[in-house]
Write a structure and sequence with these properties.
2 helices, mainly alpha
Length: about 160
């Protein structure tokens, strides 16, 4: 029995020495590994906080820009409506001016046409009267009387 107790004690002592050796040799690498792992976790945590702050800042900036854009869109809509109204008024004025010009031009052209037609009618009537008068004179007057009468007509025409 003593032998078994000694065996158990030696095995336990061997196990303790083995654990001590593992502790002695593995302590430093495990400690470094855990410290590095901790540093990595802290760095990632810091980066996550920075990214979260950056995301919040970007979100706030986006919100501000959306609000500003909405305000600018409202302003643009108002200006567009004003410009549309002004343009419509200008177009109406320009159309009215154009129609007035067109009407005046038409009236001038109409008067000119009337004057030209009147002159043509008068010229036609004079020529007709002259022709008919000459025919009548030829039938009723002799050559000397005809000459005097034609000279009087020409003198009246020249005056």
């Amino acid at each position: 029995m003593w032998l078994e107790i000694i065996k158990v004690v030696l095995k336990t002592l061997n196990l303790l020495i083995f654990f001590y050796l593992i502790y002695y040799f593995a302590r430093k690498p495990v400690k470094e590994f855990l410290e590095n792992y901790k540093k990595e976790i802290l760095l990632k945590r810091e980066e996550a906080k920075k990214k979260e702050k950056e995301a919040k800042r970007i979100e706030e900036e986006a919100k501000y820009l959306r609000e500003k854009l909405a305000e600018e869109l409202d302003t643009i809509k108002i200006k567009f409506e004003e410009l549309k109204k002004e343009t419509k008024e200008e177009m109406e004025k320009e159309t009215e001016k154009f129609l007035d010009k067109l009407k005046k031009q038409f009236e001038r052209d109409l008067k000119e046409s009337e004057e030209r037609i009147k002159k043509e009618i008068l010229t036609y009537a004079r020529n007709k009267i002259m022709d008919q008068t000459q025919d009548i004179l030829k039938r009723t007057l002799d050559d000397t009387e005809r000459e005097r009468f034609v000279l009087k007509i020409l003198e009246a025409k020249n005056e």
